[in-house]
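=== RUN LOG ===
request id: a7f3
mode: sequence -> structure
chains: 1
length: 484
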Amino acid sequence: MEHPEIYEDNMTPRQIVEELDRYIIEQKDAKRAVAIAVRNRWRRRQIDEPLRDEIYPKNIIMIGPTGVGKTEIARRLAKLVGAPFLKVEASKFTEVGYVGRDVESMIRDLTEIGIAQVRREHEERVAEQARLNAIEKVLDRLLPPPPKKKPPVETAVAYEEGEERNESDEVVGETFVFVPAEQAHDEERSYQRTREKFRQMLLDGKLDEREVEMELPDHSKMPMIEIFSGSGLEEMDINFKDMFGNLFPRKTKKQKVKVAEALRLFERGEAQRLIDMEKIQVEALRRVEQSGIVFLDEIDKIAGRESAHGPDVSREGVQRDLLPIVEGSTVTTKHGMVNTDHILFVAAGAFNVAKPADLIPELQGRFPIRVELKSLSVDAFVRILTEPDNALTKQYEALLATEGVKLKYTGDGVKRIAELAAQVNNKMENIGARRLATIMERMLDEVSFDAPAMSGKTVKVDAKFVDQALTDIIKDEDLSRYIL
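=== RESULT ===
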């Protein structure tokens, strides 16, 4: 019943939330909503047809200011369940002409992501064999095998009485050279012993700087074809690269490359040879249809109703173009037909001007789940700076450690960073947790610049250090508007 190729496993909603908690602070309601949506897709696949095909995903609208975790929740979720994931700004469809870029292009982009994802997984499966094959090819160039000699053959040629047979004589009517079996075996054993020594040296990296000759594509002789097109060309679904690649013969040239690079090139080529692209295509299309996630950011930017003038003209047009994709339709891609019935759409927007109710009713009905993400407090900023596995403080600590500089954060220092971030967000545009990156970068500007000359030193990041680096800038509102 369940397709094994689909990587969306049977994690419970509670397990999904626990994993998201490792990277995203607060926003419990949003995490619960996406966890349930993903679990429902697993539940659907356990149900027998025809009811299974009648159960559609419960699409979600996340409402909240920028920088509170909307995009990160969707991205981490897709990574967690191994699903093809595409983030697209809804406003890009209004940029050119009346309805902007072709809305179906996001499904084509998602398909390309799915193909790349599955190809990468298949290459990982054959990586060991590809590596072994690549080693053999490099060894063939480092130590070419000796020319093959025909094995000894007994002949019925008679010799005169008293005439000694010379083993190197050519036999009449034959073209082979007679070599005694024992000598042939000795040569083969000697060659294999030498080859094994070279193999070990290759594995130990002792031959990396040696050069070998190999055939590489000659890009200088490739025909140059430039295509200038509008947004409508993608509807033609033409793969010009494949078409012209078959039209013109592929040129190659012999070139010397270092062993390490040759090994990498051969490994990549062998991996491509060992995988089955037809299987990859079938598996990727199924995964896109059953597990794909599209994150529609800035959906509030197209939430205006039709008006007679200005940028609002195209908004309802974009909504109507999005509607069939979200409702479920079949999109033509160069890899085949993709049905969007069971793709999960997660929309997000600040909705500080428009409201979800400003979307056309049909589109509203396709996003039944609404979750509101809260603005981040000082305490939340402190947790963001310390708790996640990828916390900013840990990132800067690791970066400066490469120069031999140790960053030591104190509790009051971290709290002061959080307070200043919240203060700047209140005075100016509220960009949420993204303000922390701005504050941290400015605060450690001098240390980052001088780090190569500070090897072995410890920098204590306490409240005093933070104030010395930032207070003057924050007091000068005009200056902070540009710097922070």
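=== NOTES ===
Confidence is low (pLDDT under 50) at residues 1-7, 153-165, 167-178, 226-238.
The two ends are 54 Å apart (CA to CA).
=== END ===
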